[in-house]
């Protein structure tokens, strides 16, 4: 048997997820009232999803061509999706540091780093990135804070300053 | 009705609202013109700014962005040959050749005025049809509503792409995501895996923004080299629009204009089918009914009229469905539905009766936005030329941060930004793996409606055959089954003989539920459909079951 198709991996993952979610529906508290229990609707959806995924699995197994999970292995995957992965990593960092940096400083830092990672890294370009980050986030922060009266996360660093 | 219309006029013709709408139309026109920046994205970004506004004002601004976006796509399509949005793909078939022949001003003029007239036809029909459809919706019981939701999901999955199974799986995943957290009926937390933060479930809009906008932005910057280049590298310059000549060209083609607007409107009413489909359908139809079909694609005005009238009319159709039945016609109206929910307004068949000023305000704003679009087009053309010099990565980074700020403003909780992040990961992964997002988004939006109606139906009677014996429910179940087969019909049309009976059998199959309905009109329509189906079968039998040449759709259908 040759290598499995990418769709086969996805179908297997979905079947596993169906199992996990079905197990979770068994933990739903039965309050003893209501026409249908709270677990019935998710179980119905999971049954449909399970049937559809089985169809998808068979469809993928019948495919002639072999499409690996990642073209060019893990290195190829990292090369192809590096921009998206960087964006996720930076956004994750922005969220983790939000209690300390707040929306203004964290936002500026996120935009600056994202621009620098995705774009050119010459001294001139980095300078422009800093200006864009500062201008765009400060303007939006001001609109929300003063215009729309939304209290955005201040952050410990900002409150100390 | 007149009082409500007057009250709506007063609400919309407020100087602040007009000012915001003008900004909205401008933003929509520019966003629509930028390839890779969809109308949905523009509406999503507008949403946080509308939280603090009264409902009428907020929706008017979002509608302005929507209308502007639908018309903006034609600018880049005509001047560079790259459509700004999937809704204007067919516009480039004749718009770009006409512009290259030295008539860019006329091409733009025909596009702009076709959008305008198409939008106006759709606005008039919106005012006329939405209350009627809502009246019809009042007949719906929970069985009918549940079947309608199932139909909406099936048709969205079937229209979303090549792989119907992936579309249906995406729809089921959307329904599943909507079940996480406390359920509306019993108030019991479920599928939260012991996490307190998941007990309340996911807020609807961060999920939508994550699935659609976040994942779209990452797709736009996926290629590192393309992300660093300016949005358009070709020489783009602003041109003078030939308004007077264009109006004449459009109005002399009134038959094509009305036909295309009606195609757009009907496509908009179908859940999940947006402007990306209607512009191609209308173009195909205009070509078929033209006396000179061979000239299509060489720069004829008819091609531009068909595409642009249809895509603007689609918005009216989608709004009819949302306002009358509470079922969004496309992703943009799904977001508008979310905006209405923020203001504690729940669209349903009684929406127009319960909230007449808001409902008529939507009609008025939709109408007015088209006039603003005409006024702002020339100005936006200049800005568009400047915006095309910006590289995509700059827009993506800034918009990602704006998404976070906007989502936080929804409920003032950081958990919503985490929701945005995780659904951004899910959305992007699904895009990469070839799963359409529209069914999932509709699943998230409609999941709660489906569950509540299923529960109500079973509370009234435990007899599940009611889903197949009540006329409206049977009607929706029937068309859901046919829509599930539709992708195979589309794929094999003109190649396999069974496709010859698909449409006649569909006509005949929907007639029994229509016969079962009350009154005279619907049974008559049922009878006519039965006769039509029989006639089509007879014609095909007479023709010796000869297969027609398949119709080539020039572009794949993508989400707007």
Question: Topology, please?
Answer:
The complex is a heterodimer of chains A (161) and B (560).
Chain A: H1 6-26, H2 40-62, H3 73-80, H4 82-96, H5 98-118, H6 123-147, H7 156-160
Helix pairs in contact in A: 1-2, 4-5, 5-6
Chain B: H1 2-12, H2 15-33, H3 39-50, H4 55-80, H5 89-100, H6 104-137, H7 142-159, H8 164-179, H9 204-220, H10 224-228, H11 243-252, H12 254-269, H13 275-289, H14 301-325, H15 331-342, H16 351-354, H17 356-387, H18 392-411, H19 415-432, H20 438-460, H21 466-469, H22 471-492, H23 499-516, H24 521-542
What structural category characterises the helix and strand content of chain B? Answer: mainly alpha
Order of helices and strands of chain B: HHHHHHHHHHHHHHHHHHHHHHHH
| Helix-residue proportion of chain A | over 70%
- Strand runs of chain B, count: 0
In whole angstroms, how far apart are the ends of chain A?
64 Å
Rg estimate of chain A, integer Å: 24 Å
Strand content of chain B: under 5%
Overall number of domains of chain A: 2
Number of strands of chain A: 0
Helix content of chain B: over 70%
Radius of gyration of chain B equals: 23 Å
